[in-house]
Amino acid sequence: MTPVHIRLRHWREAAGLSQTELAKRVKVSQVMISKIENGAIQSINLQLLGRLAKALGCEPRDLVSED
Predict the structure, then answer these.
(1) Total structural domains in the chain?
(2) Residue 16 within any structural domain of the chain
(3) What Å distances lie between residue 3 and 18, 23, 42, 43, 47, CA to CA?
(4) Three-state SS for 55?
(5) Residue numbers of the domain that contains 49
(6) What are the E-state strand segments in the chain?
(7) What is the pLDDT of residue 4?
(8) What's the rounded Cα separation, in Å, for the pair 48 and 27?
């Protein structure tokens, strides 16, 4: 299995959103956004990945990079 990194902070900052603003858009807690950005959450489901991408105006694949 190839490790992946969720590039959420990069896209969130590029969109000019705070963690709280993004969390409200995707209906999760700000703590969840923080944990994803800091690597405390190692995997997220595809549905959440899709909601994050939509809120950030990118494709889900843009949020994922191989480490």
Answers:
(1) 1
(2) yes
(3) 27, 25, 9, 10, 19
(4) helix
(5) 4-58
(6) 4-6, 64-66
(7) 60
(8) 9
Which residue bears the tokens 């190692």?
42
State both tokens at 39.
């690597």
User: Please, what sign has the CA dihedral across residues 58, 60, 66, 67?
Assistant: positive
Where the chain has pLDDT below 50, the residues are: 1-2
Residue type, 37: E
* Predicted TM-score (pTM) of this structure: 0.88
In 10 A of CB 32, how many CB atoms?
17
Q: Are 25 and 11 in contact (CB under 8 A)?
A: no
- Which of 3, 55, 12, 14 is CA-nearest to residue 34? 12
**What's phi and psi for 5, nearest 5 deg?**
-125, 135
Which residue type occupies 14? A
